[in-house]
Design goal:
Blueprint lengths: L2 H17 L3 E2 L13 E2 L4 H20 L7 E2 L1 H17 L11 H7 L6 E9 L4 H10 L11 H6 L12 E8 L4 E9 L2
Parallel strand pairs: 3-5
Antiparallel strand pairs: 1-2, 4-6, 5-6
């Protein structure tokens, strides 16, 4: 099976999974979004962020059917977008480029947290759909990472302890040559 064919198959699954919806977030039995929705119809950056949010929750369910989907947190998405935009403006990529920890960033926005995690990614796919699949499932994506990104999506430590994360936010920015993605995971209680 060619790489292009397998990416097309994944893209079809992603779009069927809800990335094309106007809003993304946990839904009740009637299909109504029950938490702060992530608006998905604004532009490609928002579509990409929605797709990553959906794709991570879909991937979590594939790994363990007992895992609950992350609820969308609008404040976390704002912080994530701002950090992605910061990386795009710098044209650089990394945790702590602002010389501050994630906790300090969240504190500056007034986000209460008890435990937090961060995944970042940069890629050069021209289309946001391909970029989304690559971010989560690609050979250089979070699911294939040996640096803790996979565990963060699962909400686990490397030793398999549950972090208790229930909320997540995603922010995407487009730089001159790359997409920059930041996803935060949070436990507030």
């Amino acid at each position: 099976m060619s790489t292009r064919f397998s990416i097309s198959m994944l893209l079809s699954a992603v779009l069927i999974g809800g990335c094309a919806d106007d809003e993304v977030g946990p839904r009740d039995d009637n299909g109504v979004v029950t938490a702060d929705p992530l608006r998905c119809d604004a532009d490609d950056m928002h579509r990409y962020a929605c797709c990553v949010f959906d794709e991570v929750n879909l991937w979590r369910k594939e790994q363990d059917s007992l895992l609950q989907p992350y609820a969308h947190d609008r404040e976390l998405s704002t912080v994530a977008f701002d950090y992605s935009a910061f990386m795009a403006e710098l044209g650089d990529f990394g945790h702590g480029l602002d010389h501050r920890g994630l906790g300090e960033r969240l504190d500056d926005y007034g986000v209460y947290w008890r435990s937090i995690g961060e995944n970042i990614q940069r890629n050069s796919f021209p289309d946001w759909r391909e970029a989304c699949v690559s971010t989560v499932r690609g050979s250089g994506g979070w699911a294939a990472s040996e640096e803790g990104h996979r565990e963060a999506m699962l909400g686990m430590t490397r030793e398999g302890d549950d972090m208790g994360w229930t909320r997540s936010g995603v922010g995407v920015a487009r730089g001159e040559h790359y997409w920059y993605v930041t996803m935060y995971f949070l436990r507030a209680d």
